Amino acid sequence: MMITGFSVKCIQCGYINKPDRSPRTGILKVLLGEFDSCMRCGTKFQIVEVPNRPLVQELTRKLQTVSPAVKIFNYSGKIVPMAHGVV
To answer: What is the separation, in whole angstroms, between the first and last Cα of the chain?
Structure first.
């Protein structure tokens, strides 16, 4: 299994934010609520929509709580969609 990078696209300005260089650490920051705003325009995300990929499933099982601002969504197909920061 190949793990690809993790990024969050800002709906406001379209910037593709990378919370961390490591996909695992980036996903953890989002799930814990430590990454909640766009790096370019500074817009605070009300909700961060995260695709339910295997690494997300693994990390949510290990965590006691997930930030209430995170919404995990299912997807179909071979290409994993990008996470979105909703304003």
So the answer is: 33
Q: Give CA–CA dist 18/22, Å, rounded.
A: 9
Distance from C-alpha of 65 to C-alpha of 22, rounded to nearest angstrom = 21
* Neighbouring C-beta atoms of residue 44, cutoff 10 Å: 11
Name the band, by pLDDT with cuts 50, 70 and 90, for residue 3.
Answer: low
CA separation for the pair 83, 71 (Å, rounded): 10
pLDDT of residue 48: 96
Element (H, E) at 82: none
pLDDT category at 4 given cuts 50, 70, 90 is low
Q: In the structure encoding, which two tokens stand for residue 64, read together?
A: 């006691």
